[in-house]
Amino acid sequence: MPKKVDHEARRQEISEALWRIASTRGLDGASLRDVAAEAGISLGRLQHYFGSKDEMLRFALRHINQLAERRIRERIEKLPEEPSPRTVLRACLAGMLPLDEKSRIGALVGAAYFARAVHDESLRAEAREGTPELRAFFADQLRRAADRGELPPERATEDEAMLLISVTDGLATYVLLDVHGPEQALRLLDRHLENLFGGAQAGHA
Q: What was the pLDDT predicted at 4?
């Protein structure tokens, strides 16, 4: 068991070395040799943990998605007892925005994966894997809000859930491009939620 834990930890360290490269110059410029050097290990040692660059990319993508999910889960756990669906949604969506250095690096790495996944079917399948589950979770929160009389029933749909994801992704992209800053992105997100919920009061996370 200890060997397995150490093996997993080293794979995660290699993934994080890959992210540091991806966040500054994208994934196409990240060779196995570059990643090994960034991780402070030999190329042969890296190949002990990953047989190919594709395997490394898929593992690193899963790992960064898990960290993002953990960050969002922690935001939700900090909410007051029995938060409203709108408050849960706001916490999740804010957690998807690059509001600090750690989440900005995550967003930069995500953008690098997206650019590569457009032309890489296996990576594209990996990148989109969590989207249906996230859309379903958001749609469930919208239905809960409608049941509580906080949202018009016709807005409690998977289409609206997908719009929430898309709007937040767009806001995140423009933070990375310095079109607007994190605070403005958060303000625009709140404005979208106000339009969706008809201006009902929200408990902000």
A: 53
Which residue in 71, 80, 94, 78 sits closest to 203, CA to CA? 80
pLDDT at 80 over 60: yes
> How do the domains of the chain map onto residue ranges?
2-197
The tokens of 181 are what?
């800053």
CA dihedral 124, 128, 130, 131 (to 10 degrees): 180
Q: What is the CATH number of domain 2-197?
A: 1.10.357.10
Label residue 171 by pLDDT band (50, 70, 90): very high
In 10 A of CB 138, how many CB atoms?
Answer: 22
User: Do 15 and 63 touch, CB atoms closer than 8 A?
Assistant: yes
Q: Is the pTM of the predicted complex or chain greater than 0.85?
A: no
